[in-house]
Amino acid sequence: MTSSSLAAPLDVELRPDRPAMLRVDPPDDAARWAAEHREALRARVAEHGALLVRGLGLRDTDQAGAVFTRLAGRLLPEREAFAPREAHGPALYSSTPWPANQPMCMHHELSYPLEVPGLLLFACLTAPEQGGATAVADAAQVLDALPGELTERFEHEGWLLTRTYNDEIGASLAESFGTDDRDEIERYCQANAIDLTWGADGSLRTEQRRSAVVRHPLTGRRCWFNQIAFLNEWTLAPEVREYLLDEYGADGLPFNTRYGDGTPIDEYVVRLLNDTYEEPTRRAPWQAGDLMLVDNIGTAHSREAFTGDRQVVVGLADPHRLADHCPTPEASRR
């Protein structure tokens, strides 16, 4: 099945089990090809939520970065990262470091800053031997599939992200905020609706309330847009969770999520959230040279466990400051 509204030779293949796919003959200049077809490619991302382009033959980070900037313009530097990434150039990053044998569950990239990336760009330079797909799921379908009582609570209260920065695990202050200067960090937090507390040992604890459901800035669709399950303690491997609790205590975890009123989220709720993503999930194994574009607000993504080498580079683009993304503390009291 192909889309009739995109002129040949850019016909998009549509199947219910994988992202929309565009197969192309390897161009002499991938960046120039991307510039020539930018509007058509971006239109298909808006239509389908994600687009996998196969055949570009992307080989290195310079080539990937050139394609990204032709498609998206200015790439965004990452702020408030939860784990350090390797930088391959200005705002061009490695995929998030995560054990290869552990999947990364569905989430929206950087859903908790006030300004969120609307577009994600992925380039696969080395494909894994097995697994490792970047799967996608429609956020509006996820919202519709969740129990109404649960989504009503999250809509009413929002969700709370708690973080504790230390020198041993996760992103450092400099990696997350772009500086380790206390005054600069405090100014950033004040400007971005983040509450913070400094520990006597120099550690930093932060809390920020964000909306769990937002309206897509272009389509107006209501989307389940958050990282409630992904950053919750119950999504961690059991042995990792137990180690972190023993080492840092329940209030000192590097990151955790709660209901917007500060109440802990039960394990069964986190399992329910992760399970609900299964039905709308679409996946396609990476091939070396692939490009994938993802609407970060309308589409969640994951990374499956894998074996072998896997090199995927990432760009963030199209910043949006969503009007309904930062609920006021009074909202949870109504």
From TrEMBL:
Gene3D superfamilies noted in UniProt: Clavaminate synthase-like (3.60.130.10)
Keyword Methyltransferase attached: no
Oxidoreductase among keywords: yes
Alphabetically ordered keywords of this record: Antibiotic biosynthesis, Dioxygenase, Iron, Oxidoreductase
Biological process per Gene Ontology, one example term: antibiotic biosynthetic process
InterPro entries tied to this protein: AlphaKG_dependent_hydroxylases (IPR050411), TauD-like_sf (IPR042098), TauD/TfdA-like (IPR003819)
One MF annotation (Gene Ontology) recorded for this entry: dioxygenase activity
Cofactor dependency: Fe(2+)
Annotated TauD/TfdA-like domain residues: 29-313
The protein's name in its UniProt record: TauD/TfdA family dioxygenase
Organism (species): Streptomyces dangxiongensis
